[in-house]
Amino acid sequence: MAPATPVVDREAVAATLQASKQRNRQECELKALTQYECQFVDLESNRYICRPFKRLFEVCAGTSYETTAQPTNSADRS
Amino acid sequence: MTTTIGSILTVSSYFLRSICFLHISHSYIYEFTETRGESMLPTLAVQNDYVHVVKKYKNGRGCKLGDCIVAVKPTDPNHRVCKRITGMPGDYILVDPSDSIYREKSDSDEPFNTYIKVPNGHVWVTGDNLAHSLDSRTYNSIPMGLIKGKIVAANDFNQPFWNGSLSNILGFRKIQNTFIDEES
């Protein structure tokens, strides 16, 4: 099993990301990974509908910092 | 009599060697195995989907964020799971941003304010179908030692044998890494 993993908030992650940017002085890349929310509409025929859920990451010096926020997927759901 | 015993021993020897070869190739080279369940929809079908697993990625060697992997389920060593890596060691990732969908009516910001740093030697894995997946959101990150290989392709046996092209016989398709550059 994984060791106990402390939960941190957005401010702490943003501070770490900022420190990484200053330390490495290099461009960070914005990356995306799309996953889905699928619901069955007919179990017998295995028919389902999937809605994409995009996750955004800023990759700096080999470390990924997730930057997914409320507006990231709001356009898809309106 | 001696010839008969010799023949039996020879056949047994080849049988045993074949079993050993299969075991070694399944453990360290390549495996073709069935997957079941809805956690990887729409990437993998609920049933009759068979995945091609390359074992050189065993123990997470060479795995990257966005790869599909087969791993031993940490809560049940007799079962294996297919998931996508959504956090590598040292990455800061949101525990469950998709939880925001179910909180649309509330203004809670918690799904976007709950991060963890993936511990060294571990990866964070989630099913592509976030709505029906038991994954790291439940059992935390998993040790890389539980990774048995990377899924590089799949055959959906629900599809017809011939689908109009040589490249997708028996529902064949490549399973891609979905961690891509974001278009600005």
Structure, explained:
The complex is a heterodimer of chains A (78) and B (184). Chain A is α+β, with helices and mostly antiparallel strands and 78 residues long. Chain A has a domain at 27-78. Chain A contains 2 helices and 4 strands; from the N terminus they run βαβββα. A 3-stranded antiparallel beta sheet of chain A has the order 2-3-4, covered by helices on one side. In chain A, β3 (47-60) and β4 (63-66) form a beta hairpin. Chain A starts with 6 loop residues before the first strand and ends with a helix. The model of chain A has no long low-confidence stretch (mean pLDDT 88). Chain B is of the alpha+beta class and 184 residues long. Chain B has helices at 2-28, 136-139, and strands at residues 30-35, 49-54, 68-73, 76-87, 92-94, 115-117, 122-126, 142-143, 147-156, 172-174, 179-181. In chain B, the strands form 2 sheets. In chain B, strands 1, 2, 3, 4, 7, 8, 9 and 10 form an 8-stranded antiparallel beta sheet that branches. In chain B, a hairpin with a 2-residue loop joins β3 (68-73) and β4. The model of chain B has no long low-confidence stretch (mean pLDDT 92). The interface between A and B is large, with 42 and 52 residues. β1 (7-8) of chain A pairs antiparallel with β6 (115-117) of chain B, so a sheet runs across the interface.
Blueprint (SSEs and pairs):
The complex is a heterodimer of chains A (78) and B (184).
Chain A: E1 7-8, H1 10-24, E2 29-42, E3 47-60, E4 63-66, H2 70-77
Antiparallel strand pairs in A: 2-3, 3-4
Chain B: H1 2-28, E1 30-35, E2 49-54, E3 68-73, E4 76-87, E5 92-94, E6 115-117, E7 122-126, H2 136-139, E8 142-143, E9 147-156, E10 172-174, E11 179-181
Antiparallel strand pairs in B: 1-2, 2-9, 3-4, 3-9, 4-7, 5-6, 7-8, 9-10
GO cellular component, one term (chain A): mitochondrial inner membrane peptidase complex
InterPro entries (chain A): Mitochondr_Som1
Active site (chain B): 39, 83
